[in-house]
Amino acid sequence: VYKRQVYATTGPRIGVRFFGGWDFVPEDLRYDLAEIGYARGVPMGAVLDKAPRGKSPTFMVAAMKDPLSGNLDRVQIVKLWLDRRGQTHEQVHDVVWSDPDHRHPGPDGRLPPVGNTVDVSSATWQDTIGDPNLVALWQDQDFHPRQAALYYARVIEVPTPRWTSYDAVRYEIEHPENVPAYTQERAYTSPIWYNP
Questions:
Q1: Residue 135 is inside which H or E element, if any?
Q2: Beta strand pairing status for 160-161 and 88-97?
Q3: DSSP secondary-structure letter at 132?
Q4: 157, 70 in Cβ contact below 8 A?
Q5: DSSP-based three-state secondary structure for 15
Q6: What is the pTM of this model?
Q7: Strand 41-43 with 15-21, pairing
Q8: What's the confidence (pLDDT) of residue 41?
Q9: Helices and strands of the chain, counted as H and E runs
Q10: Above 70 in pLDDT, residue 1?
Q11: Of the candidates 6, 14, 23, 30, the residue with the CA atom closest to the CA atom of residue 135
């Protein structure tokens, strides 16, 4: 039996844990996430079945930066579902982010950029923005118990030099103007599925 408890990154060794359940509370984030997640919920790659009456799923997510890469900008939970007509829908929720005392979602619900410390001329960056670890609890307030859905976590780093910037410095050439000079590396968990 395959458990599907996997995640992927765009390169850096970002660490991430993701659990779903019906009874997680904010205090759970202070303890061993894995122990609580496995005991009272399901991990990434698993299925949540039969919502208890009046409850909506709650998700715990924790991310840790790669020591050799950039700090973390934010963690998002992405929800996908099918409506009654078979149309697919997607919602992206910023659930935790760096510098929460100064960064707040705007009137449109969008979180402002974290900033950018990339020096293209030397293909370097500074970890003066972002956080090394981000942990959050998020509950789906738009949950419909008769609607199948899936949820996955996406972790986004602060900007770091793109490979083209490293090549330009290494080979002592001009960085092409029409090519991005930096990127925001990511990690993606496998989904947690909800089956009515």
A1: strand 133-139
A2: unpaired
A3: S
A4: yes
A5: strand
A6: 0.94
A7: antiparallel
A8: 96
A9: 2, 13
A10: no
A11: 30
Beta-sheet pairing, 47-49 with 192-195: parallel
**Token pair 């899936």 in the structure block, residue:** 150
Residue 159: partners with Cβ closer than 8 Å, 6 or more residues away: 70, 114, 115, 116, 117, 118, 125, 182, 183, 184
The angle at the Cα of 190, spanning 69 to 56, to the nearest 5 degrees, equals 115
Q: Which amino acid is at 92?
A: V
Structure tokens that stand for 180 in this block: 């991005």
- Residue 146 vs residues 2, 83, 139, 141, 162: alpha-carbon distances, Å: 26, 10, 17, 14, 44
Which one, of 155, 147, 157, 84, lies nearest residue 116 by Cα? 157
The CA distance from 4 to 6, in Å, is 6
- Judge contact between 48 and 109, C-beta under 8 A: no
**pLDDT tens digits along 152-192:** 999 999 999 999 999 999 999 999 889 999 999 999 999 99
User: Which tokens hold the place of 175?
Assistant: 């960085």
Query: For residue range 53-79, what is the model confidence (pLDDT) as tens digits?
Result: 999 999 999 999 999 999 999 999 999
pLDDT (0 to 100) of residue 89: 96
Q: How far apart are CA 188 and CA 135, in angstroms?
A: 15
What is the rounded (10 degree) CA torsion for 154, 157, 163, 168? 150
C-alpha separations of 56 from 60, 84, 144 in Å: 13, 19, 8
